[in-house]
Specification:
This protein is α/β, with parallel strands linked by helices and 440 residues long. It folds into two domains: 8-47 and 354-429, no CATH class; 52-348. The chain is 27% helix and 19% strand. The chain has a six-stranded mixed sheet with strand order 5-6-7-8-11-10. It is globular and about 65 Å long. The two termini are 42 Å apart. Mean pLDDT is 90; it is low at 1-35. Bound molecules: zinc ion (ZN).
């Protein structure tokens, strides 16, 4: 389904004249598979069929041990506090001003603060989860941003939290962070700091964004009443999108849209997903994650070739001393298997959203000097994509050995040449190195 807001992002450079084979933007027609002389952009990086980012809000995380232990479990590979690491690439969120007893930057000791900063620099803490419940003024926001700036830490993703005053969301999250003149106004500071992607409380039950809005997967025969209600609620949100903007993202079912904050700042808003049969507010903790990351859910995500920014709170453990339940560990194991066998690319929220933006990159293919050249433009409208956002970009080609890739006219020296995937077609990719995890 086309997203009008995102379509405005799909304005790229016109094809250059004088070359044999004009390429095209990643338009709906292109995604449908219209080949250009045997060259076609693959929807996901090779060899994956789908993307998933665990976007875990740190609410009620009791201490540094649980916070870093969770990151270690998911990103590490050896023994960790909560069991053997799953070797995934998973991010986390951070906030600053919170009551005692809840892990946050200002509540952490010097050692933990240093570890937080290292994980921000590595990309493993990638979301600012508001400035916290106790951040009520522009001064609170400024103090936090000054601290991050002083240490060379950059965060580009904002996630609204509960009803924090610094939230951006007006309807669901009731914040005033983007209302000029409000005590908590900080949108100008945060956008200047680097915040570009914003979540304002929108969660869908539909498994797989960037694919048709299909409610069929919500109903579960084992839970007919609860899942029937969840499906009805999701259907109602789609209907409500006709009458107002609150649920427009549900209707389009895309992961990103261009939005404007009340302060006039332009951001990319994203949609999260919690496909629990009991609704978007069920199973959204460490003790419910196994009911969400189920085998049917992962299978459906891969089959639909969708995107999923998973809404959850992994710091909410029934008994932090005991860690994760066997069921939760099994769920992470299922996800790790899907990642390691090449079905579902598990990454951080920031990296997933970056690739979401890169869908709008234009490209063209031409035969020159006996080689097939694919030239990608990093320019999207008035923006220029970072090289990191183009990482993993994959093109089906007739002969991977003879294909070459360039970005903005500069050849990439170390492209990956991939054997045929499940479609039987070979491809070439821009390298997508894994984030280096600095074990805290
Ligand atoms: Zn929260």
């Amino acid at each position: 389904m086309s997203t009008p807001a995102l379509d405005t992002l799909r304005v790229g450079l016109p094809p250059r004249t004088g070359e044999a084979d004009a390429g095209h933007a990643d338009t709906p027609a292109a995604r449908a598979g219209t080949p250009v002389h045997g060259v076609e952009r693959r929807k996901m990086p090779y060899p994956y069929r789908a993307w998933l980012a665990i976007c875990s809000d740190l609410d009620e995380t009791p201490d540094a041990g649980v916070y870093f232990g969770t990151l270690d479990l998911l990103n590490g590979s050896g023994p960790t506090r909560f069991g053997r690491g799953f070797g995934l690439e998973v991010g986390s969120t951070i906030y600053f001003d919170m009551p005692p007893g809840q892990f946050s930057y200002w509540n952490a000791d010097d050692r933990a603060r240093s570890a937080i900063r290292a994980l921000i620099r590595s990309g493993h803490i990638d979301c600012l989860h508001s400035f916290g419940d106790l951040a009520t003024t522009r001064g609170h926001a400024g103090r936090a941003l000054d601290e991050l700036t002083r240490y060379g830490c950059r965060l580009e993703v904002w996630v609204d939290h509960a009803v924090a005053p610094t939230n951006f969301g007006a309807d669901i999250m009731r914040g005033s962070g983007d209302v000029p003149g409000a005590a908590a106004f900080h949108a100008d500071l945060s956008c200047a700091f680097g915040i570009e992607h914003v979540w304002r409380g929108r969660v869908t039950s539909v498994v797989g964004q960037g694919a048709d809005r299909d409610l069929a997967g919500i109903f579960q025969p084992r839970h007919p009443i609860a899942s029937g209600i969840t499906r009805a609620k999701e259907w109602a949100k789609g209907r409500a999108a006709r009458f107002g903007p609150k649920y427009a993202m549900h209707a389009s079912n895309d992961v990103l849209r261009r939005s404007t904050l009340r302060s006039g700042h332009s951001v990319l808003e994203f949609l999260r997903c919690n496909p629990h049969w009991g609704g978007v507010s069920r199973g959204e903790t460490a003790d419910g994650v196994h009911e969400v990351l189920s085998a049917p859910m992962l299978g459906r995500l891969a089959a639909r070739e969708g995107w999923c920014v998973l809404y959850t709170h992994l710091g909410k453990l029934v008994d932090p001393a005991k860690g994760f339940s066997r069921a939760a560990l099994d769920a992470f194991g299922r996800l790790a298997l899907a990642h390691h066998d090449g079905r579902i690319l598990v990454t951080t929220t920031r990296r997933l959203l970056g690739y979401g933006r890169a869908r709008a990159a234009t490209w063209k293919a031409a035969v020159r000097g006996g080689a097939l050249w694919i030239d990608v433009s990093s320019r999207v409208g008035a923006d220029r994509l970072a090289a990191a956002d183009l990482a993993g970009l994959t093109f089906y080609v007739p002969d991977a050995a003879r294909a070459r890739l360039a970005v903005d006219g500069v050849e990439c020296p170390a492209i990956e040449r991939n054997p045929p995937d499940h479609t039987g077609r070979a491809s070439v990719s821009l390298p997508r190195p894994r984030l280096a995890y600095p074990r805290p």
